[in-house]
Write a structure and sequence with these properties.
The longest helix has 14 residues. It is globular, with a radius of gyration of 16 Å. The two termini are about 15 Å apart. With about 220 residues, the chain is an alpha/beta fold. An 8-stranded parallel β-barrel has the order 1-2-3-4-5-6-7-8. The structure holds D-xylitol-5-phosphate (DX5) and zinc ion. The site of zinc ion has 5 residues, from strand 2.
Length: about 220
């Protein structure tokens, strides 16, 4: 099955974002992962809606928006997205999560649902009709440069098995946080489909983006 690379823009050179985006295009990156944080759901604040709308004007790479905010329903209409873009909200961030997923589907883009490390995969069992992509967080969200949590591989394998059991094989599973070459290979073997690449594998001091993306794909499949 095809594997997808999603570049975590918060880890790019923010003083030169347009050049980074052009480099990501040349490297054949599949998605731009954009982290939206509110300082409340997670203890950090990063990128925002104006940046998303600006980025939509300069690239055709689909966006993979990861909202780490409380009550994301308040902000769904702030982004101009198209059918290939994924808008992902956290299961833990809204009491009536089904309503938010419906809002996203009505917007015309793809709906993603993210799970913190402690949230069981089984919780999404009755929501699968509304979800295109399941994001299994491999760190507690909020910061780049953290260490993958110890149950991550088991959780991704379990997610893939449950999706199969529920006849949802088409739902893509994304992993985000400390996706290095080594962890990427392990997570690939557990069945992960989309790999969010930040400081651990793509934005590196000693390697170009193109070389890092090439190395990652070769290594995880090897
Ligand atoms: C969190 C972000 C970062 C990103 C950073 O939602 O998307 O965690 O993965 O990559 P690493 O963990 O490699 O620095
Ligand atoms: Zn993220």
């Amino acid at each position: 099955m095809k594997k997808y690379l999603s570049a975590s823009l918060m880890c790019a050179d923010l003083t030169n974002l347009i050049d980074s985006i052009k480099d990501l295009e040349k490297a054949g990156i599949d998605y731009l992962h954009i982290d939206i944080m509110d300082g409340s759901f997670v203890p950090n604040i990063t990128l925002g809606f104006d940046l998303i709308n600006a980025i939509k004007k300069v690239t055709d790479i689909p966006l993979d928006i990861h909202m780490m905010v409380n009550e994301p329903s308040k902000f769904i209409d702030r982004m101009n997205l198209s059918g290939n873009d994924i808008l992902c909200v956290h299961y833990e961030s809204e009491i009536h999560i089904h309503r938010v997923l419906e809002m996203i589907k009505n917007k015309g883009c793809k709906a993603g649902l993210a799970l913190n490390p402690g949230t069981p995969v089984d919780n999404i069992k009755h929501l699968t009709e509304y979800i295109d992509m399941l994001l299994v967080m491999t760190v507690s969200p909020g910061f780049a440069g953290q260490k993958m949590f110890l149950g991550a591989e088991k959780k991704v394998a379990e997610a893939k098995a449950l999706l199969k059991e529920w006849n949802c094989e088409n739902m893509l599973v994304e992993v985000d946080g400390n996706v290095s070459l080594e962890n990427g290979r392990k997570l690939c073997r557990c069945g992960a489909d989309i790999f969010v690449l930040g400081t651990s594998a793509l934005f590196l001091k000693d390697k170009s983006i193109t070389k890092a993306a090439e190395d990652f794909t070769k290594y995880i499949l090897g």
